[in-house]
C-alpha cells in the first residue's frame, strides 16, 4: 500500500512542477475570437511579451497594427486567422508564424518588450477610423497593463494610410500616439493633418517603393507629400518625418517586409528600436514662449505668446525685487488652443525701481516649468513733481504726476527747521506762497495716501 501512495505523491508533485513550468512561459500569441472592440471589431490577434505575467505591476508599450485591404472579417474562426496569415512579413505575421522574432529590443541600452494588438475590422474604417481606433486604444488601456506614454500605431497599405489619417485628424488623436510606422500610405496628406501631427510631436517613419507593382509611384509620392506637409507645419515639427524609398520596381508588400524586418537597420536601429525610443513624456507642454514687460502709466503690462500648447493648465505670474526670491501674484489659465495663444497680465502694485518677472507654467498632471526672467525699471509718474520756477521768489508752482487725494507738504531748511506746512487735495497742481521764507535751499516732503515724496528747491 505504501508504494502506490508514494507513486501518487510523485505524480502530484510532477503535476505541480509541470504547471509551474508552463506558467513561467505563458502563451504569448492568441487569436481572440468573438471578442468585440467597439462596433466595428469582433476579434483580434494578441501578442504578449514573454515576461508579461512575471511582474503584475509592470506596464508595457503597446503597438496597434492595422491590416490592409482584403483582411476584413467577422472575428470568428475561419476569418480572424487572416490577420496573421496575410501581409507576409508584417508584425502580426512575424510574431505568429516565426520563432525568430526577438523577445525584446535594445533601446538605448535598455531591453524593451511590447504588447501587440491587431484588430480585425468588420468593414474598412475609411471614414470611421477616429471612432474605431480610439475604441481599440481605450480597450487596450482598460484590459492590459499599457504604458500610456508609449502607444504606437503601425500599418500597411490602406492600414498605413488610415494610421496617418487618424493621427492627423485631430490633436487629441495625435496626442495619444508616440510614433507611427506606415508602409505604403496612399494620398490624404493635408496641412491641417500635418499641423496636428507636428503639434503633438508624433514621430513618423514611412516606407514605399519607387515603382510599386500596384500603384506605380503613387505611394512614394504620397509619403513625400506627408513628409513635406509635416516639415512645413505650424508649429514646426520636433521630429522631422523619416521616409525610406525602395529603388526600382517591387511588389506592393516589399516596403512592409523591409520596414518590419528586425534585421533591417538604418542608422544602427531597426524600426522597433526606433519606434520604442519615443515617448509622450518627452512632449513639451509649451513651446515657442515669448515673454515681455512694459510700463503703462502706473502699471506694468506683461505679455507673452506661445507657439504650441499641450497638457497646459496655465501660468502663474511671479514677481521679485531681487531676481532670486519670487512670489506669485496671479494666475492666467490656458486658452486651450493647440497652435498657441497670446496672453497678458496687469501688475498694479509693482516695486519701485527694478522689477523681475517670470512665468511658472503648470501642466494638467501637476508638473511645473519656468520661463525666462524679464526685468523692467518702474518709475511711478505719481512720484514725479515738476517745480517752477526754481529758484523761486514768491509762488512755488507744483505739478504732480497723479491727482493727490489728501496731501500734506512740509518745508524744511537745510538745518532741519520746519518753516511751512500746506494741505492739498483733489488736484494735480498747486501753488505755495514762499514769500516769507529766507533765502536758501529748502527740502520738502509730500505725504499722500501712504506715499512719501521728497523734492528740493531754492528760495531767492
Pick out the low-confidence regions. 15-26
Query: Number of DSSP strands?
Result: 27
Structural class: alpha+beta
* Broad shape: rod-shaped
Q: Could you give the order of strands across the largest sheet?
A: 1-2-6-3-7-8-9-10
Q: Can you give the helix content as a percent range?
A: 10-25%
Provide the residue-averaged pLDDT.
87
Account of the 3D structure:
There is one protein chain. The protein has 460 residues and is an alpha+beta fold. The chain has helices spanning 2-24, 82-85, 91-97, 129-143, 158-169, 171-174, 191-199, 218-231, 254-260, 271-276; strands at 29-32, 41-47, 60-66, 105-107, 110-112, 115-121, 146-156, 179-183, 203-212, 242-250, 286-287, 290-296, 299-305, 308-309, 312-320, 327-333, 342-347, 353-363, 368-370, 374-378, 385-388, 395-400, 407-413, 418-424, 429-433, 440-448, 451-459. The protein has an 8-stranded mixed sheet, sandwiched between helices. A hairpin with a 2-residue loop joins β4 (105-107) and β5 (110-112). α7 crosses α8 (218-231). The protein is rod-shaped. The relative contact order is 0.08.
What keywords describe this structure?
460 residues, 8-stranded mixed β-sheet, 5-stranded antiparallel β-sheet, 10 helices, rod-shaped
